[in-house]
Amino acid sequence: MIIRSLADIQTMIPGSIIDERYTSVMIHGVSTDTRTIERGNLYVPLKGATFNGHQFVKEAFDKGAAAALWSKHEPNAPKDVPLIFVDDTLVALQQLAHAYRKQLRTRIIGVTGSNGKTTTKDMIASLLGTVYRVQKTEGNLNNHIGVPLTLLRLKEDTEYAVVEMGMSGFGEIELLSTLAEPDVAIITNIGESHLQELGSREGIATAKFEIVKGLQRGGLFIYHGDEPLLQTRVQQCMLSHVETFGMAKTNDYYPLDIRVQADGTSFTVNRWPNEMFHMPLLGRHHVMNALAAIVVARFASIDVAHMKEGFSRLTVTKMRTEVIKRDDGVTIINDAYNASPTSMRAALELLGQLTGYRKKIAIVGDMLELGDQEIAFHEQIGEMIDPQSIHYVLTYGTRAKAIAERASERFRAGCVRSYDDKRKLAADVQALISAGDVILLKASRGMKLEEIISLLNE
What we know:
Blueprint: E1 3-5, H1 6-12, E2 17-18, E3 26-28, E4 30-31, E5 42-43, H2 57-62, E6 67-71, E7 83-86, H3 89-103, E8 107-112, H4 117-128, E9 134-136, H5 146-152, E10 160-164, H6 172-180, E11 184-187, H7 195-198, H8 201-208, E12 220-224, H9 228-236, E13 241-245, E14 255-261, E15 264-269, E16 272-279, H10 285-299, H11 304-312, E17 322-325, E18 331-334, H12 341-353, E19 360-365, H13 374-384, E20 392-396, H14 401-407, E21 416-419, H15 422-432, E22 438-442, H16 451-456
Parallel strand pairs: 4-5, 5-6, 6-7, 8-10, 8-11, 9-10, 11-12, 12-13, 18-22, 19-20, 19-22, 20-21
Antiparallel strand pairs: 1-3, 2-7, 14-15, 15-16, 17-18
Pathway: Cell wall biogenesis; peptidoglycan biosynthesis
Pfam families: Mur_ligase (PF01225), Mur_ligase_C (PF02875), Mur_ligase_M (PF08245)
Function: Involved in cell wall formation. Catalyzes the final step in the synthesis of UDP-N-acetylmuramoyl-pentapeptide, the precursor of murein.
């Protein structure tokens, strides 16, 4: 994490003002939240529509903060404490993070995409971690506040950092990319997430492609080569080093063989046709994320043996195809962190491909932020669910009713049900399941579908 004197901080944040009495004060790390602040931190009070962090500056000092930022436009600044006066505390946080990034020798891997960016981040960190000192984005710190905090948490001796970059509108990825200045930039895919804000898949592709704005001169750009919307943009942009991955053999990296097994997914790659990679994740769609990670590993000169080791010890962020084995013999696949039409189809296809289970039950909820086409997208999901490979479809939420309506046209009576009450849904599932069954949970984050797991245990 950043360890600097306030004199250093003053040079890193343009236009900042510090009382000369405090220039030798040292800060150890940065926090924007007094609930988790640690002794020696620099406290950054952010201001939002319904809150003002400046109200908690005294509390921050009481809890051991070494110093704090303070907006020049805020009245009643506390006396006789180390304050750094700035025009805008959020902008100052971003400026500090960018300046710190430029002082580090750490190589940055920037990851964005509509689906799979968190899992790809975890894979890259696992592969790189077999050889190098690596840090990665923690939790969901992937926005205009989270990325600066991620950069400021980097240790001086970290060799590689994997930084996830999320967005909801135009200009956001460009900001994050210019702050992080990645040595490698990755777009996992272009899906339908944020259609409500960006209007079309073309708009999503434009927004995601902003990641090249901060790419280091001569840096590596990696993208899903099966996506025409990305192909077109790459052709129009002067990038010196580009690698692609995908299913098509026109890509630099593509799979030759994919096998989904009870303990994970195995695959081979065109570059090493006789080498089988195995990862403890279920689903063919994860192979695309793995290919992106392999391209980064090659960039970092990691050999196949270490790649295999990295995949074998992979741990991913919770609620991303997380497999839970219950004591009663029921398996739960918790993929409830988020959902789009692309990831929903992939999850349902995975459930359909699984073998060795008595009953396969899909519990799916609303997919959010899909704009005017949201009902049509839900109907398409209902139409693609195969009654020959999935036995029950239970939906939660008003939009997901459209999934049930279309699916019920092909399923036996009683095998498709809609709910607006999680407790009722959980009670019916508990009455339905027995040893040897498998349940899939999939919905957008706002639906909190993972609560079904605890309700089943009541």
